[in-house]
């Protein structure tokens, strides 16, 4: 089931979700347990990551007991490529926290055996005890992770082709459409649905149409985010502009 939570703006949303994550980390670490977070890249979670960094600096929130799994990585980009999701995460989150390097997981975009890499990624998530809280954005195509339409509810971590709409959207960061990779390695829809809690973030009018489809359309491969309706604990954190078509 998807519940919708409206926030005055993306910064208030970031504060609320960061607080939820901080509570989860503190609660679990009190009983000696790790907290497993699923993380997204893109512009949407940036205020959330800034707030987590602030909580770490100003409130002493420790990430030593946190294990992370990112949703995806571009195929063909090395970890140290300026536009890799590994670089994005290092710059915007990891290098500012006390999270142990061994606890960070992002698919290897340079793998020469995607099936093996993706199978190992699924196994690592299982070995960590599954994802406690998955952070998601949503693409204009209805993708979650890089599960572009059509993506069935039972798809797993795998190599995928990016939709041209997604390549166009992401070309802003690359400066030139030709530089945007055509493929990626992404957690599957089934992998995402196994997270115990899901927090999807969407802000701004450009996301209103796809947010309304995700919430209101019958679940189908044509709009992969609709599969979230089958999740028992999924919250869409929206501002008024993103919620305007609901
Ligand atoms: C990123 C990811 C994508 C993005 C989506 C929205 O790791 O998996 O699904 O969340 O493309 O991107 P932004 O936030 O840039 O609009």
Average of the residue pLDDT scores: 98
Small-molecule components bound: fructose -6-phosphate
Which range best describes the helical content: under 10%, 10-25%, 25-40%, 40-55%, 55-70% or over 70%? 25-40%
Counting structural domains, the number is: 1
Major beta sheet summary: 7 strands, parallel
Radius of gyration: 17 Å
Give the distance, in angstroms, between the N- and C-terminal Cα atoms.
Answer: 15 Å
Defining key terms:
single chain; 246 residues; alpha/beta; Rossmann fold; seven-stranded parallel beta sheet; binds fructose -6-phosphate
Could you walk me through the main structural features you see in this protein, from its secondary elements to its overall organization?
The strands form two sheets. The protein has a seven-stranded parallel β-sheet with strand order 1-10-9-6-2-3-5, sandwiched between helices. A three-stranded antiparallel β-sheet has the order 4-8-7. The longest helix has 21 residues. α2 links the parallel β2 and β3. It contains seven helices and ten strands. It is an alpha/beta fold. Helices cover 33% and strands 17% of the residues. The chain has a single domain, classed as 3-Layer(aba) Sandwich (Rossmann fold), CATH 3.40.50. The mean pLDDT is 98. It binds fructose -6-phosphate. Fructose -6-phosphate binds next to loops.
């Amino acid at each position: 089931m998807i519940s919708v939570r409206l926030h005055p703006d993306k910064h208030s949303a970031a504060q609320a979700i960061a607080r939820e994550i901080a509570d989860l980390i503190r609660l679990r670490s009190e009983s000696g347990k790790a907290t497993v977070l699923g993380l997204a890249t893109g512009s949407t979670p940036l205020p959330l990551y800034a707030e987590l960094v602030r909580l770490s600096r100003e409130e002493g929130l420790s990430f030593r007991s946190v294990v992370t799994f990112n949703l995806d990585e571009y195929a063909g980009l090395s970890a140290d490529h300026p536009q890799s999701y590994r670089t994005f995460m290092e710059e915007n989150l990891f290098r500012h926290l006390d999270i142990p390097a061994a606890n960070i997981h992002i698919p290897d975009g340079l793998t020469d055996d995607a099936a093996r890499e993706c199978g190992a990624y699924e196994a690592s998530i299982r070995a960590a005890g599954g994802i406690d809280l998955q952070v998601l954005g949503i693409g204009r195509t209805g993708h979650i992770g890089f599960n572009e339409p059509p993506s069935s509810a039972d798809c797993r971590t795998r190599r995928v082709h990016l939709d041209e709409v997604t390549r166009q959207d992401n070309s802003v960061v690359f400066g030139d459409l030709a530089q945007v990779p055509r493929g990626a390695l992404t957690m599957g829809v089934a992998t995402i649905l196994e997270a115990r809690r899901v927090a999807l973030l969407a802000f701004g009018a450009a996301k209103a149409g796809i947010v309304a489809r995700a919430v209101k359309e019958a679940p189908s491969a044509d709009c992969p985010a609709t599969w979230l309706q089958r999740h028992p604990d999924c919250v869409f954190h929206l501002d008024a502009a993103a919620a305007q078509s609901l």
